[in-house]
Each structure stands twice: as C-alpha cells, then as structure tokens.
Design brief:
616 residues, 13 helices, alpha+beta, flat, 7-stranded mixed beta sheet, 17 strands, Beta-Lactamase, Heat Shock Protein 90
Length: 616
C-alpha cells in the first residue's frame, strides 16, 4: 500500500471515528487520571492516619525511655531497691501520663511490677499478653531489651487494640548492660481516634479485627472504591507488632476533584473535535500537493533503479526542498557507488592475489629455514673433513722409512679418521635427505596452491599423525631450547588437503617453539592431543596443541588471527596464523586459542570435519 493510500485511508477512518475515539481517550485517560489523582489523595489520607497512630506509639516509647533510663529503675529491677515501688508505682502515676499499663520485667522473665488500669473507673484490668503478676513479657520483647533495642507497635487484646512502647532498662548515663524491659501501653480507644481525626482532618472509623493467620509480607494494602458519584471509600489495615492485621481503618473521601475533571473534559473534548476537523481538511490538501505526489514519483524511480541494477540512471529534481535535496543526494550516492564498485572489484582481485602470495611465501619460508640449517651443517662437515692429515699419514707409510711402532700408530690414525669420515658421511646423507624432503615439500606447497587456483579445493581423508610428524621435524629443526613434542598415539582421519593440514600444524608447532624460546622455561614441551567432540557435532574432530611458552596477553585471543597482528617483539609479520585461520575455514574447520596469560603457555584448538570410516 502506497503512502498516498495509507494517508487518505487513515485520515478518512480517523475523521469518521474521531468522536468516539476522542471520547474514550478522554474518559479512560484524562478522566481516569482525575480518578487516580483522587484515589492517590485517599491513599495519602489513610497513610496520614496510620502515620499519626505510629507517632502516638513513638511518643509512648519516648515516655518509657524517661523511666527506663534511670538508676532507681535499674536498681529496682535488679532487686536492690524495694522502696522504688511505693515511691513511683501507683495508679495516679500511670493515669497522669494517660497510660493504661506500666510494667517492669527482668530479662529472665520475672515481672518486678506490672499492672493495667481502666483510667475512667480506676479499676485494675487483666490484659492477656502484657506483663503482670500472672503473665510474663513475650520472649521476643525480652530479647530485644537484652540487645538494647526498643519494643514498639500495636497488639490485640480482648479490650481492643493497644499501643505498646518499651525500652531497655539502663543507668542514668545510658550505660548497661540492660537489666530488663520497661513497658508502657495505652488502648487505641475513642479518645485516641478522635485526636487522630482532629490532627489529620480525615473522618475514619477504626474496626478491631480478630488476629488470625501469619504476618503480612509488607505494608498493608490500601483499597479505594466508589460509594457514590461524589464519594470514595478508602480502607486499609492496622498491623500489630508481629505484622498481622488487628484493625480495619475505613474512611469516606469527597470526589470534588473528579466532578471538576468531568466538566473540564467535556468542554475540552468539544473544542478539540472542531479544531481537529478543520485541521484534517486542510492537511489533506497540503499533504497531497507538497509530499505525496513528489514522494510517489521519487519512490517509483528509486525502485526501478534497484530492480534493474541500473546505476547509470538519475532521479534529478528541480525542487529546492528536502525532497529535491534527497533526489540530488541520491544521484550523488549512485555515482559514489559506481566508483566504489569499480575500485572494489579491482582491489578484491589484487587483495586476493596478495593474500595467496603472502601465505605461499610464509609457508615456503618455514620450509626453507630447516633447509638452510641443513645446508650450513653440510658445509661445516665438508670444511672440517681431515683430508690433509690423512694424506700426510698415507705419504709416510708409502715412503717406508717409518719405524714399526710409528707405522702402527699411523694405521690406527687412518682407521679412526676413516670411521669418523664414515660417520660424517652418514650425517651428510641425513642432511641431504632432509634437504631433498624440504625441497619436495616446497614443491608440494607450490603445487597445492597451483591446483587450488585451477580447480578449487577438494577435500580428502588426511592422516593427522603423518602430517603432525612432518610438522614436528620442522619445529625441532628450528628450536633453540631443548624441546619435546608429544603426539597422541591414536588419531582419527580428517577431511582436508594433506599439504595444507601439514602446513597448519607446522605453523602452530613453529609458533609454539618460538614462544618457548621467548619464554622463561629452560625446556619446552608441546603436545598434540584429541579433544572430546562437541555434543551437537559428532561428525567433527577436535585437536588441541598445548605449549609451555610465553603465553598470550589478555584480549589477544581473537586479534591474533587477524592479518598483520603479531605478539612477537621482532620478526613477526602477522601472516602465519591469519593464513591458518583462512585455510581452516576453506577446509570447513575452525581454529581458536586460549591462554591463562603471559608466561603460562597457550592452547590452540582445531576443528576438522571427520573423514567417514570405510565400511568393513
């Protein structure tokens, strides 16, 4: 669907349904926002009620501190001041501070003094749960006092909810250890409720509840419901000191804000409907002329260029606005793409040739290094052959003028030198054999790349053990430190190119040997082993090449396979591992590396396709 069709269809649909949609939007968003605003106000009102009750509890707890932090109280609860009771503990002392209960308990649960009163009748009350002659303080309260903590909150009693506040009994200077718990309690009666109503300006009712169930996981929720169109009902629970509901608070809140919101919405909605209708009519004409028609033409032309891949075509426009600028810039972009395509085609060819050349040269260089060493050893043996001394000994014997013992020594000398020459000849033959093998290997490298260039890369079963032994010879020939290379005895065949696999292993073995030479170890160790196959890829062979060399710096595990990147301090060209990564990818495999850090060696992980076993 075109932009033109979408705009006209959308505006037409909106025009026909706007009245209904606007009304719903206003009702369910703005009007409900007014409702939510008032609901939030109702929640705040109830929160102020709860805060006021908690403030009463806090005040009661502070009063208890005046009595609890007193040497006389400390001595009384400790049992060393019996006259304290007669001087301080009587009804008027409790009534004067509007308390219904006062108790002093030792930490072992013994109640030194504890009584509850009806302040109107002055009658003594029996309040379960509060310390008295027959009831001890709850163990949790005593533990809090022993830890120097206060006890504050609400409790449920048969006479109604009570506010309690307790303090640990300490000396005048606040020092301890705590000797007991001093507790005040007051009923949450009509007088307290009236005081809270006066302070919060909230009309509410307090309804006691039976204590059942476990403690709530958090603050009591507040529910707000509509009673009438002008009044909201808000409710929440008061929680006791254990977090269980003990009373229900209910309040009726006027909905004056909601009524005002309803009138405002009706007026604003009508005005908005008229304004929107006029704006739509004007927009239809302007959009058609200014944007839809030019964009349709531009879109059609661009689509044709993309479909036909005709980069020589242009979409020029004589417009001077954004659409005209877009057309001009698009023409410029097409010109840049044409130029970039030509350059990319040229660069792609030369880059590919350069990568191939670098890979060939790197592998030939690795093969030439042991060849050069073999030629040098051969030249040294030839230069050091004892020709002159043998000729002198032979000349003396031919002259026949030497004594018998001298002749015997000359014969022994000639025999020893002959044996030495035979040994050197054997070593020279070994060097010549190695030189021939290296030359043949170089020829195989060149032939492999020539075949790859002419007919692509065909994969065939490769004996990993055979390739590893060839790579091992190259690494041992170049190692500067004592080096041990261990190859697993049983290794499965893989799919690949024999020469390429050998060169990959040789590159990795040589790199490991160079890392060992650069490290702090006295003797190097390299191992080639088979790793368990990935559970999801049982058709693969995973190899691990481990060394105890210089290791890798953190963060180089990925960059090490990039062209030009090398961790070597000198002589590194960043070609070998890049070539290995490309070669493994060509053979359908992969290569990665892990290292515990500098000085802790490295492990290269190779993944090959497994060669299918021949049927028995």
């Amino acid at each position: 669907m075109t932009i033109k069709t979408k705009i006209f269809a959308g505006l037409s649909a909106v025009f026909l349904s706007f009245a209904v949609v606007a009304g719903l939007v206003f009702w369910f968003n703005i009007y409900e926002s007014y409702e939510e605003l008032k609901s939030a106000g109702a929640r705040r009102d109830l929160a102020r009620v709860v805060d006021a009750i908690e403030a009463n509890v806090e005040h009661l707890t502070l009063n208890a501190k005046d009595w609890a932090t007193w040497d006389d109280t400390y001595r009384f609860v400790s049992g060393t001041m019996p006259e304290y009771e007669e001087a301080n503990l009587y009804f008027s002392a409790v009534a004067n501070i509007d308390m219904n209960h006062l108790s002093i308990s030792a930490l072992d649960g013994r109640v030194a003094w504890g009584k509850s009163f009806d302040l109107e009748t002055e009658a003594e009350l029996a309040v379960p749960g509060l310390p008295s002659e027959t009831t001890v303080a709850p163990a949790g309260w005593l533990r809090a006092a022993a830890d120097g903590r206060i006890v504050a909150g609400l409790i449920s009693t048969p006479q109604g909810p009570m506010m309690v506040g307790g303090q640990p009994v300490l000396r005048n200077d606040g020092s301890g250890p705590p000797a007991g718990l001093f507790l005040f309690a007051r009923f949450l009666d009509d007088d307290v409720v009236a005081d809270v109503r006066s302070r919060t300006k909230v009309t509410f009712d307090l309804i006691p509840l039976p204590v059942v169930g476990d403690a709530m996981p958090g603050p009591a929720p507040v529910t707000v419901t509509a009673i009438t169109s002008e009044t909201l009902a808000a409710e929440t629970s008061l929680l006791d000191i254990e977090g269980r509901p003990i009373a229900r608070i209910k309040a009726a809140i006027p909905r004056s804000v909601t009524a005002l919101g309803r009138r405002t919405i009706l007026a604003a909605g009508g005005a908005l409907l008229v304004a929107w209708l006029l704006a739509v009519l004007a927009a239809l004409l302007l959009i058609q002329r200014i944007a839809i028609t030019p964009l349709s033409n531009l879109t059609r032309t661009v689509a044709e260029i993309g479909r036909d891949d005709d980069l020589g075509r242009t979409v020029s426009s004589d417009r001077e606005d954004e659409i005209g600028v877009l057309a001009t810039e698009f023409d410029g972009m097409l010109a840049q793409i044409r130029t970039a395509r030509r350059r990319l085609e040229d660069q792609s060819y030369y880059t590919g040739m350069a990568d191939v050349a670098r890979g060939v040269l790197h592998n030939i260089r690795n093969a030439l290094n042991p060849l050069g060493i073999g030629v040098w050893r051969l030249s040294q043996r030839i230069e050091n052959r004892p020709h002159d001394t043998l000729r002198q000994a032979a000349a003396e014997l031919r002259a026949g003028t030497v004594a018998a013992d001298r002749a015997a020594k000359l014969l022994d000398f000639i025999v020893a030198r002959s044996e030495e020459l035979a040994r050197q000849d054997g070593e020279a033959i070994a060097d010549l054999t190695m030189i021939a093998e290296r030359s043949k290997h170089i020829e195989e490298i060149v032939q492999t790349y020539d075949e790859m260039g002419r007919q692509g890369s065909e994969l065939a079963p490769v004996d990993i053990a055979l390739s590893a032994r060839e790579a091992k010879r190259q690494a041992l020939a170049l190692a500067k430190k004592p080096l041990t290379i261990t190859i697993a005895e049983s290794m499965p065949a893989v799919l690949g190119q024999s020469t390429t696999v050998t060169q990959v292993l040789a590159n990795l073995f040589v790199n490991a040997a160079e890392a060992i030479d650069a490290g702090d170890v006295e003797a190097g160790e390299i191992s080639l082993s088979v790793e368990p196959a990935d559970g999801a890829r049982q058709d693969t062979v995973r190899l691990a090449i481990r060394d105890n060399g210089a290791g890798l710096p953190a963060g180089s595990e990925v960059k090490i396979f990039e062209r030009g990147f090398s961790t070597k301090t000198s002589g590194g060209r960043g070609v070998g591992l890049h070539w290995c990564a490309n070669s493994m990818a060509v053979m359908g495999g992969s290569i990665s590396v892990t290292s515990a850090g500098p000085g802790r060696g490295a492990t290269f992980h190779l993944t090959f396709k497994q060669a299918l076993k021949e049927a028995a």
